[in-house]
Design brief:
The protein is an alpha/beta fold and 361 residues long. The chain has twelve helices and 14 strands. Strand 6 and strand 7 form a beta hairpin. Helix 5 packs parallel to helix 6, helix 10 runs parallel beside helix 12 and helix 11 packs across helix 12.
Length: 361
């Protein structure tokens, strides 16, 4: 089965086999040593980050990493009246606003339609007020597949000296991240998307100065990045980590290095995504977003052809060995999404296009 959903991904044999290593207690020095190696490799994925950003490992989904990242936002008594500005144009920006609400942290939302870019003029007006210490944004918004304009948003964060908290769950390891140019304080990501690991391990890459600059803003015992960072200096964690998923992450990071790092992976994704887009265009299937250039490399959304329901398309493709993804919310009956992460290649995409043609027939 080839998984063309936005994570989990189809694993290579070497990553799958890594999970068959001997059972290991998470309190043993061997596990701590492996975690230390993983932390070093995560820092090295983007060389620009290696000097001052530190990864913090969590046993969680990517959503858990995002929520843990928001523990960097001070609680009210330490916030000096400052708020978070959430820039949302899809499910995951809106989810971050819900997390901040649950944490009782002051925030405002600059919202755009799910089919629209981020509203940067509205962001500029908001930041000019001086009311915000942080901006939160989603890099690759997989609701539609849009790769948001982080160069534009990051320039505003720099100009107004506001720190950026970035949901990079669907971009880390597959798209460019500009840590300095975007005034990035932290980004959250996961093992089971562009890194080609398995679900269960996620992480936040944090500017190390944050941990001494201000107290933790955690409203949760489990998702307190400060405690994780303190204990992971020796490779251990405050809670039980997913050992087998950690085995897989280490092997996945080695594989990423062997395949040319994030840049090599991005090139592969871009080629496969272009193959799918051109093949679907030949079948009369159009991208869901009007501006096809706004898609990221890892996933794109497409309009369902007339007369073909998502359920029929999904079931036909599943029988042929492919899993695609439905639209969310109001788009559930209008689109399907195709991701190109994991152990897939041009021959797989060619066969996918043949099966989509058959489903239409």
């Amino acid at each position: 089965m080839k998984l063309l959903n936005p994570g989990p991904v189809t694993l290579t044999a070497r990553v799958r086999e890594a999970m068959l290593r001997p059972d290991l207690c998470h309190r043993e020095v061997e596990f701590a040593a492996m975690c230390t190696r993983i932390l070093d490799r995560l820092r090295a994925v983007y060389p620009e980050a290696a000097a001052r950003y530190v990864p913090v490992l969590l046993t969680s989904s990517g959503t858990g990493a995002v929520e843990a990242m928001l523990s960097l936002v001070p609680r009210a008594e330490h916030a000096a009246g400052k708020k978070v500005l959430v820039v949302a144009n899809g499910v995951y920006g809106e989810r971050a606003a819900a997390m901040l609400t649950a944490q009782g942290k002051a925030h405002d939302v600059v919202a755009s339609a799910w089919t629209a870019p981020m509203d940067l003029p509205a962001v500029e007006r908001a930041l000019a007020s001086g009311a915000y210490a942080h901006v939160f944004a989603v890099h690759h918004e997989t609701t539609t597949g849009r790769l948001n304009d982080l160069d534009g948003l990051g320039a505003l964060c720099k100009r107004f000296d506001v720190k950026l908290l970035l949901d990079a769950v669907s971009s880390f390891g597959g798209e460019r991240i500009r840590f300095d140019d975007w005034n990035l304080e932290a980004c959250a990501a996961t093992a089971n998307k562009c890194l080609h690991g398995v679900p269960g391990v996620a992480f936040v890459l944090v500017d190390e100065a944050v941990f001494t600059a201000r107290p933790s803003g955690a409203t949760s015992v489990y998702l307190d990045l400060y405690r994780y960072r303190k204990e992971q200096k020796t490779g251990f964690s405050p809670f039980t980590q997913a050992v087998q998923a950690t085995y897989a992450l280490e092997e996945a990071l080695l594989e990423l290095e062997d395949q040319g790092g994030w840049e090599g992976r991005h090139q592969k994704y871009a080629a496969l995504a272009g193959q799918v887009r051109e093949g679907l265009y030949a079948l009369g299937i159009r991208p869901f977003l009007d501006d096809a250039a706004s898609y990221g490399a890892t996933l794109a959304s497409y309009r369902l052809p007339a007369g073909l329901s998502y359920e029929r398309l999904h079931d036909h493709l599943k029988n042929a060995g492919f899993i695609v993804y439905a639209g969310q919310g109001p788009f559930s009956g209008e689109m399907f999404r195709v991701a190109v992460m994991g152990d897939v290649d041009a021959a797989d995409m060619a066969r996918l296009l043949v099966e989509i043609r058959a489903a239409m027939a």
